[in-house]
Amino acid sequence: MVLMVVLALRERMLNQQVETVNEVVRVLGNYYNAVYRIDFNEGRYFKVKAERSDGLAAPESGNYDDLFKGVLEFVEPGAADEFSRTFSLEHVRKLLNEGVTDFGGEFRQRFNKEYKWVNVRLSSDSSMRRGEAILSFREVDAEKQKQLEHMQLIERALRVAKQNTKSRNMFFSAMSHDMRAPLNGMIGMAELAALHKDDPGAVDDYVQKIKSAGKQLLTLINDILEMAKMESGKVEHLQEDFDIFAVVNDVSAMFEAQASV
Asked: Where is the Signal transduction histidine kinase dimerisation/phosphoacceptor domain (predicted)?
């Protein structure tokens, strides 16, 4: 009597464990559109779960080649060759014999009239017979779209960074050229001033022009500093009145001095 009670309790516990496992499997199965158990030794499949939303109406069991051809009809034409190579019976047998237990990829599959991204995986472990594996299909279109959008943002940021680098290099190249003019002007006017030591009026004129060239050089240096602020996000906009005729006269004076030396 006691033995019968113990056996009954044990059977009840085992049934509860089986039910718990089945519940977990059902919950996990909700993440997949289709799940098949494949015997690649015999070339057969057994359907564990399959939704009809993908349009594939596969029997409960049958030849793997028939299932493979049926799935292939719904794969985006541009990816059909890659899918054929990846999940062909010969290729899968080879991978399983080499000890590979998990592989797959993402393909666009037709659902009614539109294509969506689907993750297709083949998984196996030591609890299964050699040559057996689970083939699963999971629709990941929303995740893939976010991933593609993220990649596009990265690519756009890289293009902007490259353009900024190019613009910065052009800026500094132009600045290095522009800085030579006031420097050469200052050197030229200093040499002219040295040649006219006995003419205070001429020397004073050259000194004023040297000061003007120095101011222009300082402006260029400030522009470089402003460029550095822009790169760090600290931009300041200043509005100042200036005499454009005086600026033109100062610039032309520098080139006149260089031409006179």
From this structure: 167-233
